[in-house]
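User: quick one, fold this
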Amino acid sequence: MKKRDKRHQITAPAKRAAEKPARPAGATSVLNHIYHAREYPFEDCWVQRGWDNGNSASGLAVVVVARRQSDGNILYGTYLVDHYCLGLKDTLCDGNTAPDQFHHQMLPKLIGPAGEPMSISVELAHEIVYGAIEYAKRWGFRPHRDFELSQRILDPADAHPRSGEVTFGRNGKPFYISGPYDDVDAIVRKLERTAGPGNFDFLRIMGAPFEDDFD
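Assistant:
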């Protein structure tokens, strides 16, 4: 593959950013803002209401983290987290979004069918995302490949104290609920190797409640 081709395959979010209408001359690119995201202050963080209660049958949480760019626009990352087993299943990031557009149009779409956005602390947002990734790593699962870019919206994993009140797995062990794009047999085989037969729970369903609509 030629070097030029490789540069144009950074991530799907970067591609979506590149496909947007041309911005005025001098406007800073979305990708440049993403690379400098940790220099910007946090705007707010959200997760869907009820993500961690007994009614959360899916074990999925949609976490949105937003920062305020130096030009006043919003830069954000979205993280689809399976806190029962698989960790970070999907993620995207984007920026150069006007504040009104982000809060009134983008944020409801990003949370989507998962439910109503609920503001949470920066510390809790990081604890959910990084904690789920670390839990999934114990069973051999890595975060979605686009996290290589979208993690720049977050602070480093050790930047914020953790409450220890966020639990991962269910009833003290991994609980795998199959999603519409999972290689179910491969995931179950991996759990049998890493957790051991009888040390995880498994539910095969036709589709996840809102996973189909994440993108």
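User: anything notable?
Assistant: The chain has a mean pLDDT of 86.
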